[in-house]
Amino acid sequence: MNFLLIKSFKINRKFIICFFILLIILIPIIIFVSFANDDKKEDENNFIKWVDFNVTSDVMKLTSKLDIDSHNDNNSNIQYNWIELISYLACKYGNDFNNFKKSDLDNLVNELNSGKTMEEITRNFKNYNYYYEAYSSVLCDFIGNCSTENNNENTTKSTNTNRNENNNKTETGIIPEKSYGIKVYLPIAKNYAFSHYKDFGKSRDYGFKRVHLGNDLMGSIGTPIVAVEGGTIEHLGWNQYGGWRIGIRSYDKKRYYYYAHLRKDHPYADGLEEGSTVNAGDIIGYLGMTGYSIKENVNNVNVPHLHFGIQLIFDESQVDSPNEIWIDVYEIIEFLK
């Protein structure tokens, strides 16, 4: 009996020792995995949740001119980045550009010309990186190297496609001249009149109480609508709120352009379908007054206009969700005019 007790004690003792050794090995692993999962969750959620686009058209005009002129001037000692300039001003004014003074921009330019870097100048601006990422998501493809062939001519097909690799010519046989400048277009075709006003956030009540998440551009039925930027068509067809509408996602996936209330019977340019691509400046549809109806192809909008909106996407979880980020595009339209 005593022998059995002693033997049982030895077995239990070995088990206890093994258990503690295993525990000593597992605890650091469990802690590491736990921290790794926390870091992973933090990384997954580490994206911008909201943007108030408050940059005025005057600020965009001044900073874009500095950017473009410095890149096109072979004698310039420095090349400015308009998004960096805007982000600096956003920090200085707490994103309230109504406080903008040109002297502040001039002082910044003088500092950069003296040899200081933007990193040095903004070292104590804790929100600079946020503003730079936020405003880059909107403006990153507005300025850059572009072709001047058929500049500002809105056509259904871009002439910079199907390039012959041997002679660098397009289908037209014309060699496009390269330049650095504005790459995007107004959504209303050139030489067509329109008007607009600040209506972002205004109340809407068709279907349910909600706010207006775009800018209405009033014009004549049939006015050609132009792709502001190139991208992939994600939505094309009827929506009871927007009528005949088209949604285009930029190639970098950061911007979703929404064009709504297109013309009854013939809303779109020929050949467009979901999944196809368009180039900046392509005609994509025609202004109308469709929408506010479950039934397709109905004119229930009171005044002919284009509803134009831009959604920012920092993470795919923000698509088709309550977490969508739509910005006020009124000043962008003023800038592109």
What key phrases describe this protein's structure?
single chain, 337 residues, alpha+beta, Glucose Permease (Domain IIA), 2 domains, 8-stranded antiparallel beta sheet, globular
Task: Describe the protein.
The chain folds into 2 domains: 57-140, no CATH class; 185-336, Glucose Permease (Domain IIA) (Distorted Sandwich), CATH 2.70.70.10. Helices cover 31% and strands 19% of the residues. The protein contains 7 helices and 14 strands. The chain has helices at residues 2-44, 57-72, 82-93, 102-113, 118-121, 128-139, 330-336; strands spanning 143-147, 178-182, 195-196, 203-204, 210-211, 215-218, 224-226, 231-239, 243-250, 255-260, 277-278, 283-286, 305-312, 325-327. Strand 9 (243-250) and strand 10 form a beta hairpin.
Question: What's the number of structural domains?
Answer: 2
Secondary-structure class: alpha+beta
The total of helices stands at: 7
In the CATH scheme, what's the topology name of the largest domain? Glucose Permease (Domain IIA)
Oligomeric nature of the chains: single chain
Largest sheet: 8 strands, antiparallel
Low-confidence stretches: 38-42, 155-173
What is the CA–CA distance across the termini?
100 Å
**Overall shape:** globular
CATH class of the largest domain: Mainly Beta
